[in-house]
Amino acid sequence: MLGALVIGESLIDIVEQDGRVLGEHVGGSPLNVAVGLGRLGHRVDFVTRIGDDAYGARILAYLRSAGVRPAAGSVVAGPTATARAILDDDKAADYHLELDWRLSGNPATPPPAVVHTGSLAAVVEPGCLAVAALLDTYRPAATVSFDPNIRPALLADRGLARERIQRLVEGSDIVKVSAADLNWIEPDRPVEQVARNWLAAGPAVVAVTLGDRGAFALCAAGIARVDAEAVAVADTIGAGDAFTVGLLDALSAAGLLGARRRAGLQAIDVTTLGAALRSATDCAALTVARRGADLPDRAALDGYRVRRFGPAKNG
C-alpha cells in the first residue's frame, strides 16, 4: 500500500452541454488523484481548501467514502469552488472556474512515499506559494509527482505560469502532462521535443497523454508508447487524473516510489515503464466510459484487465 500526500484544489464540476446541466460532480484534478488512489486501496492524506457549505459537505463525504483523509485546516469559512465544464460535440470539456486558492501551515500527516500536486494549485496565487514550500519540505523524503493540467481561463499571466510550471518540473521525479498542455506551454516546439527537454531538466519519468492517440513516456533508458483503449466515451472529465493514478499505482507496485528508491526510479527500464503506461491507460479508459470523474476502484480495474488479458498466471 502506497502512502500518498496530495495537495490541491477541491471543487464541484457542473457539467453542461447545449445549454443543459447534465449533472454536478465532485471534482478538481488533485482531488480526483486523491480519490483514485484511495479507491485503489492506498493511504491518502489530502491538503485542500473546502468551504463550510453544502457543496463542501458533499466533497467531504465523497473523500471519506474513498478512504481519503482531509488534512486539518482544509475546511474554511466561505463558499466551495465550482467549475462549469462545457462539453463540445466530441464530449471534451472546456472549464470556467470560480476559485479562491490559498493554504496556510504544514499538514500533520504521516511521512508519505509520494507527494502529488498539479493544476490550479501549482500556479494560482496565493496558494501556489504554499504548495511550492510544502514540496520543498517533503522532497527529501518522498517521490514528487506533478501534473500541470493547465486551465488557461484562470491564468492571467501566461509567462509567470510557465515559469512556475518549469520550476516544478525541475523539482519533480514524475511528471504527467497532456499534449494539449505542452502545446500551450511551448506552442512553437514539437510535443516530444518539449517532453525531452523536461526530462533533461530533472525528472526520472515524463509521461505524455495524447488523447485518442494513446500516450508515451520518457526515461533515461528510452521511450515507451501505448495505444489508446477503444471504449465508448461518456466524457473525458478526469481522464488525465485517472492516468496519473494508474501510473503511480503501477510504479508503486514495481517498488519504485519513495525517496530511498529514487535511484531505482531514475534507472527504470523501458519495459517496466511501458507496463506502467499500460496500467495508466487502463485506468483512464475505465474513467472516460463513465460520466464525470468517476475513477475505478481496485475490483473494477482488476476486472477490466481480466476481461482484456485473461486471469493472471502464477509461477
Please sum up the structure shown.
With 315 residues, this protein is of the alpha/beta class. The chain has helices at 29-39, 54-65, 127-138, 158-170, 179-185, 191-201, 239-253, 262-266, 270-288, 298-309, and strands at residues 3-7, 11-17, 20-27, 43-47, 50-51, 68-70, 75-76, 82-87, 93-98, 114-118, 143-147, 174-178, 205-209, 215-219, 222-226.
Keywords:
single chain, 315 residues, alpha/beta, UDP-N-acetylmuramoyl-L-alanine:D-glutamate ligase, nine-stranded mixed beta sheet, four-stranded mixed beta sheet, 15 strands, 37% helix, Ribokinase, transferase
Q: What would you say this structure looks like, in words?
A:
This protein has helices at 29-39, 54-65, 127-138, 158-170, 179-185, 191-201, 239-253, 262-266, 270-288, 298-309; strands spanning 3-7, 11-17, 20-27, 43-47, 50-51, 68-70, 75-76, 82-87, 93-98, 114-118, 143-147, 174-178, 205-209, 215-219, 222-226. The protein has 315 residues and is α/β, with parallel strands linked by helices. It has a single domain, classed as Ribokinase (UDP-N-acetylmuramoyl-L-alanine:D-glutamate ligase, 3-Layer(aba) Sandwich). The strands form three sheets. It has a nine-stranded mixed sheet, with helices on both faces. Strands 3-2-8-9 form a four-stranded mixed sheet. It is globular, with a radius of gyration of 18 Å. The two termini are 23 Å apart. The mean pLDDT is 91.
